[in-house]
Specification:
This protein is mostly helical. Helices cover 61% and strands 3% of the residues. Strands 1-4 form a two-stranded antiparallel ribbon. Strands 2-3 form a two-stranded antiparallel sheet. It is rod-shaped, with a radius of gyration of 73 Å. The termini are far apart.
Length: 680
C-alpha cells in the first residue's frame, strides 16, 4: 500500500464544501485524516481536548443549538430541520458515528489540487456550504495500517447542505472551542511553568538545606574538636597542677621531717648536756656527802674508841669486885635466809643487831642512806657506763656515718613491744641483728638499747614484764649489756640502787638542789611536781622488779631473783620510811613479790613481817595524810596475800585476739596502774 499523506482542510474549504464534492472519487480509494495544522503536543500535553469526537456528538450539539434558536425566535427560521441527521452506508445500512481519519496519497493529492481550485471557483458562486458529511468512509485510528484491502464505497455526498445561520453558528461554536482549548493550553502551560519553577525552587532550596546542613555539621565538628582540645588542655593543666602540688607537698614534708629530726637531735643533745650537768652536780653533792659521812664516821669511831676504853676501864674495876652469876643472852642474827652470812645479818641489823656495815648513822648529819655493797656495785656500773660513753663519743667523732638511724630503729622496736610471745620474740631477734650489724659499732647499739629501754618505761603504755623478757633474751647473748642497763636505771632512779638522800640545809643551797639530787627533772627552768616524780619512780622500780623475777627457759638471767632478794634486804636495812621509799617498796612487791615467794617461801615471809612490823609502823607514826593511801596499799598487799597471785602481764599471751583483748594502750595502762592508787 502506498504511503498516505494527511490532507489539511482549511476553514474556508469547510465553509464552501466544494473540496469535498470534488474529492469524492479520492475518498472512495483513500482514507482521509483530518489534522490541525500545528504541533500535536506541547511539553507532553495534547492540543486536542477531545480527540475521539464523533459525528453523532457534533449532530446532537447542532440540534441543541437549533432548538434554542427556534425557541428564542417568534418566527420560524428557514432550513429548520425536524429530523436528526443520520449516516448510511453504501448499501443503505445505518452506520454508527465514530471518529474518522482522512488520508490521501501524495500523487493523487497533486493531481486533484488543480481540479479542486477550478471547481472551488465555479461552485463558490452557486452555493456556500458550511458543513460536510461523510458516509460509508473507512475510519482508521492508526497510520500504520498495512492492509491492502480496498476502501469501502462511500456515498456521493459528504454532508447535507445546511443554511447560512447553521454554518455561522458552527463557525462560532468552533471558534469558541478553539478559544477554550487555547485557554486550557495556556493554563496548562502556566501550570507546567509554575510546577517547573516550583520544582526548581524546591531543588534549589533542598540543595541549600543540604549545604547548610553540611556546613552546620562541619561547624559542629570543628566545635567538637575545639572543645575536646580545650578539655585535653584543661585536663593536662589540672594534672600538671596536681603533680606540682604533690611535689611541693613532698618537699614540704621532707623539709619538715628534716627539721623535726634536727630538732629532735638538738633536744637530745641539749637533754644529754643537761643530764651530764645534773650528773656532775649529783656527783659533786654525793662527794660532799661522802666527805661529810667520812668525817662523821671518823668522829663516830673516835667516840666509839673512847666508849670502849671507858668500858674496859669499868670492866677492870668490876673485875676486882665479886663476879655476878647473871649473864646476857646475845640476840641471834641468823634468820635462815638464802644467804645466812649476808641477808640474815641484814635482817638482824634491821632489828637492831648492828652486824652489817652500812652508811646508816644515828646522828642528825647522816644524809646518805644505803648499804656499802650497794654503793660499791653502783659505782662499778656507773664507771663502766662512763667508759662506754667515752668510747662511743670518740667513735662518733672519728666516723663520718650517722648512727641516728640505728638509734631510732632501736627506739621504734622497743616502743612496739607488747605482751605476746610473738612480739617479744620478734623484737628480741631484730635487736640482736642490730647488735651484730658491722655497720654500727656494738657499743653504740648497746648504749642506745639501755637508754631507750629506761626512757620507754616512763610511758604509760609500756609493758614491764614484756620488756623484761626482751631484756633477758638480748642480754643472754650480750651479758655486758645487763650492767649497762642497770647502771642507766640506777642513774635515772636512786631507789633502784637502793639508796636515799635526806635533806639538810647545810648540805644543799635550796630545796630545788635537793630535788635535783633525788632525780627530779627540770624542764623550761621549772622542777617537775612531786606527783610526776613519784609516777616516774614507780615506773622505774616496776621495770626493775619485773626484770629480776623474769625467767626464760634456756636463757640465763644474770640479774635475777638473787639480786632482787639482795635489793629488798638492803632496802629494809638502810632506807628510812617515807613517801619515796614507800612508793618504791610497793612497786617492787607488786612486780617481784610473786617470784620471790615462789623461790624463798618462808624466808620471804620473814622479810614481809619486817615490812609489816617496822616499815608500816614507822609510816603510821608519822601521821602524814599523803602517806595514808600508800600505807593502806602495802597493808592490803600483805593482808590479802597478793604475793600468792601471779600479777597480770607476767605470763606472755600466745596472740592478741580482738574478741578477748582490749586495745594495747588501754591494756598497758590498766596493767601498769592496776595496783596504784591516787597517793601521789
Amino acid at each position: 500500500m502506498d504511503h498516505l499523506n494527511p490532507i489539511h482542510i482549511t476553514r474556508e474549504e469547510i465553509k464552501s464544501g466544494t473540496t469535498v464534492k470534488k474529492d469524492r472519487n479520492i475518498l472512495k480509494k483513500e482514507v482521509v485524516k483530518l489534522q490541525i495544522p500545528c504541533p500535536q503536543s506541547v511539553n507532553g500535553v495534547g492540543l486536542e481536548p477531545d480527540p475521539d469526537w464523533s459525528f453523532r456528538t457534533l449532530l446532537s450539539e447542532l440540534d441543541a443549538l437549533e432548538k434554542k434558536l427556534n425557541i428564542s425566535s417568534s418566527v420560524p427560521l428557514p432550513f429548520t430541520k425536524t429530523k436528526s441527521r443520520e449516516f448510511y452506508g453504501e448499501k443503505g445500512t445505518k452506520r454508527t458515528s465514530k471518529a474518522f481519519v482522512m488520508k490521501i496519497s501524495d500523487e493523487e493529492f497533486e493531481d486533484s489540487e488543480s481540479e479542486n481550485e477550478e471547481v472551488r471557483d465555479h461552485d463558490r458562486s452557486l452555493v456556500k456550504v458550511a458543513r460536510f458529511n461523510c458516509d460509508e468512509v473507512y475510519f482508521s485510528s492508526s497510520d500504520d495500517d498495512s492492509d491492502d484491502k480496498p476502501c469501502l464505497d462511500i456515498q456521493p455526498y459528504l454532508m447535507n447542505e445546511v443554511g447560512l445561520v447553521e454554518s455561522a453558528l458552527y463557525e462560532l461554536t468552533h471558534e469558541h472551542q478553539l478559544g477554550v482549548k487555547e485557554e486550557i493550553r495556556n493554563a496548562i502551560s502556566a501550570l507546567e511553568t509554575d510546577l517547573t519553577n516550583e520544582s526548581e525552587e524546591s531543588s534549589s532550596a533542598h540543595t541549600k538545606v543540604e549545604k547548610y546542613r553540611e556546613a552546620r555539621r562541619e561547624v559542629e565538628r570543628k566545635f567538637d574538636v575545639q572543645y575536646q582540645r580545650r578539655i585535653a588542655e584543661g585536663l593536662d593543666n589540672h594534672l600538671t597542677a596536681v603533680q606540682r602540688d604533690h611535689e611541693l607537698k613532698s618537699q614540704i614534708e621532707e623539709r619538715r621531717i628534716r627539721n623535726d629530726a634536727a630538732h629532735e637531735e638538738a633536744k637530745r643533745r641539749e637533754k644529754a648536756l643537761q643530764e651530764e650537768r645534773l650528773r656532775q652536780e649529783k656527783a659533786k653533792a654525793e662527794a660532799e656527802v661522802q666527805a661529810k659521812l667520812k668525817a662523821e664516821e671518823a668522829n663516830r669511831i673516835a667516840l666509839e674508841a673512847k666508849r670502849i676504853a671507858a668500858k674496859e676501864a669499868a670492866e677492870k674495876e668490876a673485875a676486882k669486885a665479886p663476879k655476878a652469876p647473871t649473864s646476857e643472852v646475845p640476840q641471834t642474827a641468823a634468820l635462815g635466809g638464802p644467804n645466812a652470812t649476808s641477808s640474815g645479818a641484814l635482817i638482824a641489823q634491821s632489828k637492831g643487831s648492828g652486824n652489817d656495815k652500812t652508811n646508816k648513822s644515828q646522828s642528825a648529819g647522816n644524809m646518805l642512806r644505803a648499804a656499802d655493797s650497794a654503793l660499791n656495785l653502783e659505782r662499778e656500773r656507773l664507771q663502766k657506763l662512763k667508759e662506754l660513753e667515752g668510747i662511743n663519743q670518740s667513735l662518733r667523732s672519728s666516723s663520718n656515718e650517722d648512727f641516728g638511724s640505728t638509734e631510732r630503729h632501736i627506739a621504734r622496736l622497743i616502743r612496739q613491744i607488747r605482751g605476746t610471745k610473738d612480739s617479744v620474740t620478734t623484737k628480741a631477734t631484730e635487736l640482736v641483728k642490730i647488735f651484730n650489724n658491722p655497720r654500727c659499732p656494738q657499743t653504740i647499739s648497746i648504749a642506745s638499747f639501755a637508754k631507750k629501754v629506761v626512757s620507754h618505761c616512763e610511758s604509760p603504755d609500756s609493758a614491764p614484764f614484756a620488756c623484761g623478757h626482751v631484756i633477758i633474751l638480748v642480754t643472754s647473748q650480750f651479758p655486758q649489756a645487763m650492767d649497762l642497763l642497770v647502771a642507766e636505771l640506777q642513774r635515772a632512779c636512786i631507789y633502784t640502787v637502793p639508796k636515799h638522800i635526806s635533806y639538810s640545809k647545810s648540805a644543799f643551797e635550796s630545796k630545788e638542789a635537793y630535788w635535783k639530787v633525788l632525780g627530779y627533772q627540770e624542764e623550761d627552768g621549772k622542777i617537775e611536781s612531786k606527783k610526776d616524780y613519784l609516777k616516774r619512780l614507780e615506773s622505774y622500780v616496776r621495770l626493775y622488779g619485773a626484770l629480776v623475777q623474769t625467767e626464760v627457759a634456756g636463757r640465763q638471767n644474770v640479774h635475777g631473783l638473787k639480786e632482787g632478794w639482795a635489793w629488798l634486804a638492803r632496802f629494809l636495812n638502810a632506807l628510812p620510811a617515807n613517801i619515796y621509799t614507800a612508793v618504791a617498796l610497793n612497786a617492787f612487791l607488786q612486780t617481784a613479790g610473786f617470784g620471790l615467794y615462789r623461790k624463798y617461801k618462808s624466808q620471804f615471809m620473814k622479810l614481809l613481817n619486817i615490812v609489816s612490823e617496822n616499815f608500816l609502823n614507822t609510816l603510821r607514826s608519822q601521821e602524814d595524810p599523803e602517806l595514808r593511801p600508800i600505807t593502806a596499799d602495802i597493808q592490803s598487799y600483805l593482808e590479802d596475800k597478793k604475793f600468792l597471785v601471779e600479777p597480770e602481764g607476767r605470763s606472755l599471751q600466745g596472740s592478741l585476739l580482738s574478741s578477748v583483748m582490749v586495745p594495747d594502750s588501754d591494756y598497758q595502762a590498766q596493767s601498769f596502774y592496776q595496783h596504784s592508787r591516787n597517793y601521789f
